[in-house]
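Hello forum,

I keep getting stuck at the same step: I have a sequence, I want structure tokens, and every attempt I make locally crashes halfway through. Rather than fight my setup again tonight, could one of you with a working pipeline run this one for me? It's a single chain of 329 residues.
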Amino acid sequence: MKTGQFRDISSLPLHCQKPQYVVYTWVLCMIILGGFLKLKYIVKTVIVCVMVATHIGLLYTVLGPDDYVDTSMRARLFILLLLFAVLVSYHGRLVEIASRLDFVWKETAISELEEMAECRHYNTQLLRNILPDHVATYFLSSHRKSHELFSQAYDNVAVMFASIPNFTQFYSEDVNRGVECIRLLNEIFVDFDELLEEERFSQVEKIKTIGSTYMAAAGLSPEACQQQEEDAHLAALVDFALEMRTRLQELNKHSFNNFSLRVGISHGPLVGGVIGARKPVFDVWGNTVNEASRMDSTGTFDTIQIPRHTAQVRRTGTLRRYRGWYTAE
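Reply #2:
Ran it on my machine without issues. Output:
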């Protein structure tokens, strides 16, 4: 307004008297857009550009003549709009980058947790395949000390040695360096292992294989020790040996072989435990184990040889024949 001139405000057109506050309101709208609305960076940038273009057009067209808004104020308001537009766009970009990183980290964490759970399940299954269930549970417990091993004395356990004596004559390294013979022996032992998955043989635990000899025991689990019937686990082991012989006979028909199974079983007290820290192996020791091994080595083909005290416990269910006195050294 020129100096010395006065105008009646009521007679002037309705223009904004304080345009800077209107611009401040526009700035707040952009801040709200950038800080609270969850939109993509490109969408936010497009909206901010449209808002700034609209506000600049309003700043130069609608906010009144030059008498009410001088050039310096227009320039300051114009710079203010551009500055906040850049800041809002930059903030939106940072928020999107942070959101993307959070999403990637979350997916990575979920994937790693799933891999850890799968690896733990695999290790648990592997440990339970190597060790008896109650021994594996002991090693997996959190209360066990890191260097503490497992050993336990048992009062009544049945031990079995089942060997295939004529496999030694069958084995030959002339064909594929003996690989085919070992593959056939593996098929035999796999058939024996499949029997352990049956419910009636749940008390039987595979101990190890020694050459063509399959070693197993029954009565090691705490459930078997609490059973009232003394010969329950012994009966399960005898039935297991009979089923092993049936499986071997079936394999002979398909492979055109004449393998025979020789079994020795004994029962009594022994000690079981885990040997080794890096490669743990469960094994059993005692006179019962030695006696079962001698029953196998001095037995005959397709028979189960047991000592006198074991025969007195296992009185029914199988056909028995007294062999007489025999020295087992």
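DSSP finds ten helices and six strands in the chain. If your local run keeps crashing, start a new thread with the error log.
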